[in-house]
Amino acid sequence: MSSADDAPGLMVTEAPAETGAPEIGPPSPRHGEIVDALAAELGDGFLAHHYSAHDAWVRVAPTSWRQAGRICQEKLGLNYFCFIAGLDWQLAPDLGAEKRWDPDAEATEDPGDGPGNWSTGVAGGDTRFGVFARLYDVIRHVGLTLKTDAGDSAPRAESWVPLFRGADWHEREAWEMYGIEFDGHPGLRHLYLPGEFEGFPLRKDFPLLAREVKPWPGLVNVEGLPGEEGDEGEEAAES
Amino acid sequence: MSVTEQQKIAYVSAQAADARINFELETEGMTLSIGPQHPATHGTLRVLVRLDGEQVVWADPIPGYMHRGYEKLCEVRDYAQVTTLINRIDWLGSFANEVPFILAAEELMGIEAPPRAQYIRTVLFEMARIANLTLFLGDMGVQLGAITPVFYAFRDREYVLNLIEGATGGRFHPNFDRIGGLKDDLPKGWIDETKVVMRRIRRFCDEIDDLLVGNRIFENRCRGIGVIPRDIALEYGLSGANARASGIDFDIRRDEDSPLAWKHADWKVWTHPDGDSFARFWLRQQEVRESTKIVEQLLDGLPAGPIRAKTPARIRVPKGEVWMHTENPLGEMGYYVVSDGSPGGPFRCKIRTPSFSNVSIVPWLLRGVLVPDVITILASLYFILGDIDR
Amino acid sequence: MLVAGTFLGIHAAYWNETVLKVVLILSLALAVAGAFVQVYLFKMVSHLQSRLGPMESGPHGSLQLMAEVLKFLQKEDTRPAKADRWVFGAAPFLVIMSTMLIYVVIPIGPRGVVANLDVGVLYALAVSSISVIAVLMAGWASANKYSLIGGLRAAGQLIAYELPLVLAVVGVVMQAGSLNLQQIVASQAHFKIFGVGGVGLFAIPQFAGLLIFVISSQAELTQTPFDMPVAESELVAGWMTEYTGFRFLIFFIGEFATAGGLAALAAILFLGGWWLPGMGAHWGQLAWAREGVGLAVMFAKVMLVGFLIFWVRFSFPRFREDQLQAFAWKFLIPLSLADILITGIAKVAVRA
Amino acid sequence: MPELPENVERAVNIPLGLAKGLKATFMTMLKPAVTVQYPRVKETVAPRARGVISLVEDNCTVCMLCARQCPDWCIYIEGHKDKEPPRREGGKPRTVSKLDRFDIDYGLCMYCGICVEVCPFDALHWSPEFEYSEPSIADLLHDKTRLGQWEQTVPEQPGLEAGADAPKGKKK
Question: Do A221 and D78 touch (CB under 8 A)?
Fold first, then answer.
């Protein structure tokens, strides 16, 4: 089965409101029906969609996020709430070759990065932060991933708790890990981390302290021969 | 087994409902903290419970005592290292954690494991399920006071773990799955040994039938306790035996055309209309029996051939996103892998674990319940702390 | 000096006799409790669960009881700061007192009984219910939330199961025509069913009584399936949570000695006590050996009932609090009343 | 039972159910116990069990692949270069890396087996030995002599199951 390879280095943001020509057709008629029904219901809230060999993605405007969820739950039969989670598209600048623990990984300074121009994944997205959810229909065995943008600096999104009570914990976790505020959530409080924890761990710019403190044992330190100077014996890592 | 009368369930649900009403009265009750060190919670989950006499008025589980930050760790490791990491999420059925992640990576890379590898993956997947659920069958007994079943469970589970160690090298953390197939093939004589152990596990299930399922006291403690209606189960995303106990006929092994070898064996997906603790227990017991049948049929039809497809020495997963989920012993476990095409590990790896959703229903479920029933309900939901906290 | 009585054929001054009786009771109670713990709680339970049990202390784990007692003795005997000092200290000894008093009336041979009271059965059951007060004292005095709940639950349960215990005995007493335990054993000896002599067990006509008695004694001992007060999964050890060291040992001995006492009562009332078909005949010179044989028979029957208690304890889950009470009030008591009714009718109509 | 069993069928199968439970435990009592009394009787461990990693020192060319791939960063390697006599006489003396220090910290190791798998020169092997616990955690750092000693406990792997392809060269 061929997995759809997006155009390499998708740099340019997708033009909004244009549904983007799908490379391949819907994996099954059921996926096609759902996406078309959603497109009809949401009108211009329906920004982009994408099909792969097995799955379907739909990106909706942040304002019609809860409406999309309600349509899926009530009209399209996708009433099994799988999960909600956050996304952070910023490439971690300090995870360069050295810290990437892969000596021949080239530096990941991607010129295209910066506000308003993120290389986001499938079905695109314009802002750094995003929220994505997965719903499933247990009778017709079809699933759908919904995505939306949450903004660059102070991410916000509409809460799904009025639709699915199970979303409570998931959104608390997304708030705790990414700092995404969910409007209409009964009580955004810490789920995993202690009360006085500052910072949002899953953001790409949050340092992983354990690896800062300890030097990486993989650095090659094989001293050269005593007599030689300069040639291949000296790349012991004092750099 | 006579099915509970509808009005008995309605009575218990009504009792739970009016307990919720008097919740607003805010009587000065006793706040009890069950956990984080408590026999009823599999690991360090703390459930804050406010009592009015012996009845629970408000309950709030507090996870996070074992939060290891898996999703952050996956972002700084490459694919082989992530596999060693993720079989520690649900440490009881640990091979079952590796499979969806590896399937996701294979789907992104467009690699298909050879049929023999798919068969052996499914066999080890089902043996992880047996190892996981036999412990549950014994543990549910001990939570309700019967000390003997848990010894039988550990005795027979030991044979399954020895088999897993014989094939993979690790009893609890096999780390045996590779992109494109498995690390090695089965050792000589493994199949016949497994057949013997499967018969022994079925005999264990019959013993549990005699000891617990047929026991009137056990029935009194479980029937009509912790009733979860179908739509509430869907809303909270309950999966696995917890969902099937509420009448949701949903099993990923049968409903989705996963590349593994479940479609080559005929086995039955059991559901139960009641949605109470007894249904969840009884379902998991049937699931163990079905798993032993799957293992036997797949081992009979094991195709010959290579164990691993050709993969490039340096794994480079192309850019793209995929959602891959399987029916793990505890429920639906899935990985949403985002790859940016770099040689390192996944760019973002969302891990959807079954126990996280299964426990998120506890605040709704525990209202209006007696203290001893709190233990029964927590035991019947059967969650593992590694799953909740990730 | 009071008239020196003869006890077991030994002529001794009055206070010597008392000392002898006290020694007999203590050794009897400790022997039965020790046998129960060593044989059943350590070894039989392990084999029930397909494991070996303690094997390190003594050949094949035989000295485990000794090790256990020494362990408890050398443990520190703590008391919670806010505990009610005197009440906390007195509770264990009250339990031991109520247990030892049961052994006073238990006959182990034609002349082997410490006090052959005419109201033997009534006395034994009355004394065994003192432990309810001790449990409440322990629960309240340890100033601990869990022991309070445990103590209250235990008190409710012990009282609820006192009734069926007593009612089950009434059938036997009506059949034997006397409250005196020796009389009961004697009447079982001459008891004929449909003309067939020598089968002298009240268990046969009073089978329902035996069932209720054993179930109720299981509840009196707060053992599974009635061990809600000491349920580990919620309350750590019920009212005994705060007790350690010597005081806990006293509770421990009390619990198993009561088990022995109730098993002995069941053996006497339903299984014919020390009687065996050959016991009544003329033994001539060996008359003194009759007590020894009686003791052996009695011990065997007590171990049989004990086996039943522990076998049930490790095979069943536990009742919930309200189911436990409902089972006593709505099922056991009506059943025992029905049993008394039938015995009464049989007694009058058939001269059984 | 909260309420009396109405029909006789339920009244019969309640004691029957309880009796079956008792029978189950009683039958187990008759069968032999399964406990293995560990210090005196030792269970045989599967030949593939991952107990401890052993090092064949002269295979190792200090390529640092294992230290780099280890997820837990628990392999510490130091080496030096020196001259080796040429293979063929008259040839140029070869420069070869020699091991100075090869420590595995078993306090950190999670026995995943990546180092054994990734080693191109077959210098690391698994041995099912597991009785090397230490009173102090610092002693869990095994140096290369100790890792060498584990080498003779590496078992001979039995063959593979029927229908499996022949293993390609590298002995895991």
Answer: yes
The contacts of residue B128 (CB under 8 Å, 6+ apart) are: B92, B93, B94, B95, B96, B164, B329
Range of lowest pLDDT (A2-6, A77-81, A231-235, B263-267): A2-6
Write the single-letter amino acid at A222: V
Least confident of B69-83, B176-190, B277-291, D75-89: D75-89
Tell whether B305 lies on the interface with C, counting CB pairs under 8 A.
no
- Which of B106, B235, B256, B359 would best serve as a mutation to test chain A binding (most A beta carbons within 10 A)? B235
Q: Which of D2, D3, D37 sits opposite C55 (nearest CB)?
A: D37
* Chain D residues whose beta carbon lies within 8 Å of the beta carbon of residue A220: 64
Is the pLDDT assigned to residue A81 strictly greater than 60?
yes
**CB-based contact, D135 to chain B, within 8 Å:** no
Position A230 in a domain = no
Fold (topology level) of B70-359: Cytochrome-c3 Hydrogenase; chain B (1.10.645)
Q: What's the pLDDT score for residue B38? A: 67
pLDDT tens for each residue of B155-166: 999 999 999 999
Runs of H (alpha helix) within B25-184: 70-75, 79-86, 95-109, 115-143, 148-168
Q: Is residue A42 part of a domain?
A: yes
Domains in chain D and their CATH numbers? 52-153 (3.30.70.3270)
Contact C188, C272 (CB under 8 A): yes
Give B-chain residues touching A202 at CB under 8 angstroms: 71-72
**Contact exists between A and C (3 or more beta carbon pairs < 8 Å):** no
Q: How many Å apart are CA D172 and CA D119, to the nearest integer?
A: 10
Domain that holds residue A39: 29-210
Show the beta-strand stretches assigned E in chain B.
30-34, 46-52, 55-62, 177-178, 181-182, 320-328, 331-339, 348-352
Give the ipTM: 0.85
Distance (Å) from the alpha carbon of B76 to chain C's nearest alpha carbon = 41
- In CATH, what number is assigned to the domain containing residue A104? 3.30.460.80
How far is D21 from chain C, CA to nearest CA, in Å?
6
